Amino acid sequence: MDLGISGKTALVCGASKGLGRGCAEALAGEGVHVTLVARTPDVLEATAEEIRRKTGVKVTAVACDITTPDGRAKALAACPQPDILVNNAGGPPPGDFRNWTREDWIAALDANMLTPIELIKATVDGMIARRFGRIVNITSSAVKAPIDILGLSNGARSGLTGFVAGLARKTVAHNVTINNLLPGQFETDRLMKTIGASAAAAGKSVDEAMAARRKQIPAQRFGSPAEFGAACAYLCSVHAGYMTGQNVLLDGGNYPGTF
Length: 259
Ligand code: NAD
Fold this sequence. Notes:
By secondary structure, the protein is of the alpha/beta class. It has 8 helices and 7 strands. The protein has helices at residues 18-29, 41-55, 69-78, 102-130, 151-171, 189-202, 206-216, 225-235; strands at 9-13, 33-38, 59-63, 84-87, 133-138, 176-183, 247-250. The chain has a 7-stranded parallel beta sheet, sandwiched between helices. Helix 1 (18-29) crosses helix 8 (225-235) and helix 6 (189-202) packs across helix 7. The longest helix is centred in the middle third of the chain and has 29 residues, at 102-130. It is globular. Nicotinamide-adenine-dinucleotide (NAD) is lined by residues 13-20, 37-40, 65-67, 88-91, 138, 140-141, 183, 185-186, 188-191.
């Protein structure tokens, strides 16, 4: 299927690795010129170079922390009026809410709620004026089925989800959609880190812990960033203009409910 977005521009956050990279690769594969944002310059540049080589699209790399005002200013200076915005940043740490300070909450809200809202604010009116826009927020399956030790994530991402639910109904008449992609367990650095930590705590090897996790997922495996990117590219396509304000779960069947 031709997604109809060749020649468009995208700002993809958290794009040097993992799910953000999967989205950037899928969009670039459809001929979208991408601006990639991540913190570590050499990792980011290596990703940018690989995407350039494979796809031939224009790839711009911006090394910054997207959760800071300065980082957002740098990203928007490089790509002021994207047709497509993929919001993504690192997830908050796990823990017990009794130990979290106000600063911990503010950091989680900054990364997983307020930064996406700031970037939407900076770009959505241009999309409306051009009568095309696609915004995808990478959130988490924890929005639908909370994970007890990830209270910072459950809370901050639910705030973003609630905000987007209202705005997405305002923009769709202008062919600007806003949707959330909810990853379950995808094989990325972040997942390896969390499995490594729980394996160490349980006195198991990482391989054992990974095998046990896979077994709990109906698909019997983790998702791949390429699968995640393909879903993102579809949401950004011309064919998805009637879909807005949705929370799309990609979890290999892990969520047990009918809806
Ligand atoms: P990852 O650690 O593999 O990659 C994260 C990417 O974001 C990297 O490119 C990193 O450089 C970049 N990044 C992180 N913080 C940033 C910041 N402040 N500014 C700019 N770039 C930043 O992580 P991932 O697994 O791809 O996860 C992406 C998001 O999805 C995270 O918020 C994570 O919590 C969430 N998530 C992931 C899974 C999973 O299974 N992988 C499940 C649920 C939710």
